[in-house]
From TrEMBL, chain A:
Name of this chain's protein: Transport permease protein
The keyword Membrane is assigned to this record: yes
Organism in which the protein naturally occurs: Albidovulum marisflavi
Domain of life from the UniProt record: Bacteria
Pfam families registered for this protein in UniProt: ABC2_membrane
Membrane-related topology note: Multi-pass membrane protein
Cellular location(s): Cell inner membrane; Membrane
From TrEMBL, chain B:
Molecular function GO labels: ATP binding
Taxonomy, superkingdom: Bacteria
The organism's taxonomic lineage, starting at the top: Bacteria, Pseudomonadati, Pseudomonadota, Alphaproteobacteria, Rhodobacterales
The protein's name in its UniProt record: ABC transporter ATP-binding protein
Domain ABC transporter stretches: 5-234
Length: 253, 306
């Protein structure tokens, strides 16, 4: 493992984040506050509570997952896509580094950014609602793995995309619907049985549910199934990136 | 001198169906400067890109410093610095940071004293804190060279390094390249400026339509294909050359007769020629000879061999 190379890529990617901390952090925080105002305050007063948890608190884990998914995908895909677009990818491809090192640098930085943003959102949420955190260590572990997993898929997206439209396509057409239908703002048990069954085919439900479990100790699906789903997701992403670097697909003509 | 790079039967067909290289075999010696010449689209950049790991070869085998570029890519690439043809930089980065980045990427520990030497040699030291987008085109190209040198490569690929660089700077860059050669760095450059190849290279390779037409020591090449022209200036204009001098060409004003000959031939025929002038009673005012340049050689080769 070539740690210096990994750190070089990692620091370069993080430098962008620290250079404009307000832009990096303000946007996700503002949108979170908006969700609180709309869902928590406006709608939440009518919903009262889900499984004895105030609706305002109930939506926090889903909100964090939603942001983490969007940020991880966007950060990782932009980082690699920009290099392809500008041409500076050649430097990475010609360097004596393996795909694991490239991924560790780019995906690690994208994931860390998401984790930082998630923590800021969590702290923001504490200003609005009473929020228990039953399993803090597991919460952090799930957060890190989820950030990493989606950054990995974002990295793949950045390699796959040939233009800006394609780069926007998956987050808009796939991820956002999956998150909204994945129980970010409601419990799957609130759905009629048939639709509850359909909802359980959505992988994002397992993420949201698992993450919510670490806060409240209760969830739509067993925590173990959440962890297994996440592991499969991570594993597939890793194999895909490995295959891409092996074959040079869309990287080495 | 041993072979630093061994290329065997290298070929490349792009996904689009373009065959950019076919059956290229070549040994590049340690410490030499090899210039690759060829018209646009000949396959020069493709050749360099494969050796540097940017393009996947379709066939053949390449070793760099004895390491297979595919199987043992880490060891092979660690030896190489690449200055690409296209300028691509992180435009909001500063000069010094982008050079540090390149060094770090190759896993080398920070060494600002070393980087300072490189930046000074490339006349970039004063610009070290400037953002890349603020630099002129020639400066950007020099930044690319600084990046390529940042990890102390044993082999340097320069893909048209002096395109868009003014004449003075070009001379300075040649000095830098000569300095690297004197440190034992192996240098492969492509260029459209024949003057550059003539000035810099130990050996010249000519590529056309994906084939390596020949690789030859520059001096041999000049010698073998070089023609000399002997121009004889006459005191009085004449209307026609006598039969004994029919191998010459007479200028339209009738004041100059020129004679083309192989400079390396055993018998150039010059002595007999000058004697003929005297025998014919044509008085000669002056005699000059001129060696053809690599440019002439190149044009002839591409025409003859293609
Ligand atoms: N990525 C690519 N995909 C498809 N074809 C390519 C690609 N890169 C180069 N080619 C084709 O391969 C051939 C060789 O191109 P290459 O860039 O190697 O030429 P070159 O000798 O460097 O030319 P120049 O002097 O113009 O830089 C050309 O026909 C070119 O169109
Ligand atoms: Mg080229």
């Amino acid at each position: 493992m070539n740690w210096r190379s990994i750190l070089t890529i990692f620091n370069f990617e993080m430098a962008r984040f620290w250079r404009t901390p307000w832009e990096s952090l303000a946007a996700p925080v503002v949108s979170t506050v908006l969700y609180f105002v709309v869902f928590g305050a406006a709608i939440g007063t009518r919903i009262q509570s889900v499984d004895d948890i105030s609706y305002g608190a109930f939506i926090v884990p889903g909100l964090i997952i939603l942001t983490v998914l969007q940020q991880s995908l966007a950060n990782a895909s932009n980082a690699i896509f920009m290099r392809k677009f500008v041409g500076t990818i050649h430097e990475i491809l010609a360097a004596p580094i393996s795909f694991i090192e490239v991924v560790a640098g780019f995906v690690g930085a994208a994931a860390l950014k998401s984790v930082i943003i998630a923590i800021v959102i969590y702290l923001t949420a504490l200003l609005f609602v009473d929020l228990p955190l039953v399993h803090p260590v597991l919460a952090l572990a799930l957060l890190i793995l989820t950030s990493f997993g989606f950054a990995l898929w974002g990295f793949l997206m950045g390699i796959w995309a040939k233009d800006w439209q394609q780069l926007q396509f998956i987050p808009m057409m796939v991820i956002t619907p999956l998150v909204f239908l994945g129980g970010a703002f409601y419990s799957a048990s609130m759905l009629p049985p048939f639709w509850e069954g359909v909802a359980k085919l959505n992988p994002v439900l397992y993420l949201v549910s698992g993450f919510r479990w670490t806060f409240f100790g209760m969830a739509d699906v067993p925590i173990l199934s959440s962890i297994i789903a996440l592991a499969i997701f991570l594993g597939l992403g890793f194999v895909a990136v490995w295959a891409i670097f092996r074959t040079g697909w869309r990287l080495r003509p | 001198m041993s072979a630093m790079i061994e290329v065997r039967d290298l070929s490349k067909t792009y996904a689009s169906g373009t065959s950019a290289l076919s059956g290229v075999s070549l040994d590049i010696r340690e410490g030499e400067i090899l210039a690759l010449l060829g018209p646009n689209g000949a396959g020069k950049t493709t050749f360099i890109s494969i050796l540097c790991g940017l393009v996947t070869p379709s066939g053949g085998k390449v070793t760099v410093g004895g390491h297979d570029i595919l199987r043992d890519y880490r060891a092979a690439r660690a030896l190489i610095g690449l200055v690409p043809q296209e300028i691509a930089l992180e435009y909001f980065e500063t000069v010094i940071n982008t050079v540090r980045f390149s060094r770090g990427l190759y896993g080398k520990p920070a060494d600002d004293a070393y980087l300072e030497r490189i930046l000074r040699a490339l006349a970039l030291w004063d610009k070290r804190d400037a953002k890349l987008k603020e630099l002129s085109g020639g400066m950007k190209r020099r930044v690319l060279i600084a990046k390529a040198l940042s990890h102390g490569p044993r082999i340097l690929f320069l893909d048209e390094p002096t395109a868009g660089v003014d004449v003075n700077l070009r001379r300075e860059m040649w000095e830098v390249v000569r300095g690297l050669k004197s440190e034992g760095v192996t240098i492969i450059l492509t260029t459209h400026y024949l003057e550059e190849a003539e000035e810099m290279a130990d050996r010249v390779g000519i590529i056309d339509k994906g084939r390596l037409l020949l690789v030859r020591d520059k001096s041999d090449l000049m010698h073998e294909f070089g023609r000399k022209v002997l121009t004889v200036e006459l005191t009085e204009p004449i209307t026609a050359l006598p039969p004994a001098l029919s191998s010459l060409e007479l200028s339209s004003d009738g004041l100059r007769a020129s004679y083309r000959y192989d400079a390396h031939a055993d018998r150039t025929g010059i002595a007999r020629l000058l004697a003929s002038f005297a025998a014919e009673g044509i008085s000669v005012r002056d005699v000059a000879t001129e060696q053809s340049s690599l440019e002439d050689v190149f044009l002839r080769l591409v025409r003859d061999l293609a």
